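Budget justification aside, the reviewers requested a transparent look at the raw inputs and outputs of the sequence design task funded under Objective 1. We therefore reproduce one unedited record. The lines immediately below are the structure tokens for a 218-residue chain.
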């Protein structure tokens, strides 16, 4: 695979997290999910978590300042040296500009931006059926990706699962509005730089992975 600094873009429930984890396992480059970082901050009750909690539950976007600081700290850590997959960041034009500055300052660059394209109509079912292992975080779906043995995590054997608080039909609507209004304008931003590749996120998970690997190799 050519690119080692990758941005995965796409709507809520589009499959970014699922694909980022598969790439991470296969190529050993870390997944940087701002959503996961924020959920960890909420669970730990940090000042960032306290500020983000209500915004996330309402399906809005957390302030650029918080997000940019969080990602700058994370990218500076040694495990990002080999590369990283950005999942859920950048989500606004100021975040994309801040990322350019951040990478430019360390003589790094983004190799590819992949849009996982899925129409809105498919996303509510994807999101409301999602659950994950409470112990290791492995992701599943009620219909599309069940554990091999019902009630037991494939990866760690735990029998405890959780569902996200913002995974309900009402919040999905706000998250989709935020995506179309604030994040979709980034697609032309990256297209102009010749970095954008689009893949069909409506296909089964393994097919999406194949498209992704092809897009990254090309
Ligand atoms: P975040 O955690 O980033 O959520 P999101 O963008 O809404 O994306 P999701 O995690 O919901 O979806 P996904 O694309 O990863 O889909 P998944 O692979 O799980 O952000 C949460 C909140 O944090 C935001 O609303 C905001 O408040 C805040 N935030 C985060 N980053 C921010 C930022 N940069 N700036 C400001 N605020 C920020 O797939 C979904 C389900 O579908 C799963 O169950 C999966 O098994 C299934 N599935 C996946 N692919 C397929 C397939 N091909 N076919 C069938 N099923 C599939």
């Amino acid at each position: 695979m050519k690119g080692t600094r990758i941005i995965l873009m796409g709507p809520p429930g589009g499959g970014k997290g699922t694909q980022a984890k598969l790439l991470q396992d296969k190529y050993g480059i870390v997944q940087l999910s701002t959503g996961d970082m924020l959920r960890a901050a909420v669970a730990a009750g940090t000042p960032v978590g306290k500020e983000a909690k209500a915004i996330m539950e309402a399906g809005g976007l957390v302030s650029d300042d918080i997000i940019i600081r969080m990602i700058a700290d994370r990218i500076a850590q040694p495990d990002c040296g080999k590369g990283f997959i950005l999942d859920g960041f950048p989500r606004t034009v100021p975040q994309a500009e801040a990322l350019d500055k951040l990478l430019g300052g360390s003589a790094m660059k983004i190799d590819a931006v992949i849009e996982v394209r899925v129409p809105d109509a498919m996303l509510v079912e994807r999101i409301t059926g999602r659950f994950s292992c409470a112990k290791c975080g492995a992701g599943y779906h009620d219909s599309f990706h069940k554990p091999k043995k019902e009630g037991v995590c494939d990866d760690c054997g735990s029998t405890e699962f959780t569902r996200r608080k913002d995974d309900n039909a009402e919040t999905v609507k706000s998250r989709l509005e935020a995506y179309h209004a604030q994040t979709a304008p980034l697609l032309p931003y990256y297209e102009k730089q010749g970095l954008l590749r689009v893949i069909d996120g409506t296909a089964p998970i393994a097919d999406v992975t194949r498209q992704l690997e092809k897009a990254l190799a090309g």
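The chain has nine helices and eight strands. The radius of gyration is 17 Å. Computational costs for records of this kind are itemized in the attached budget.
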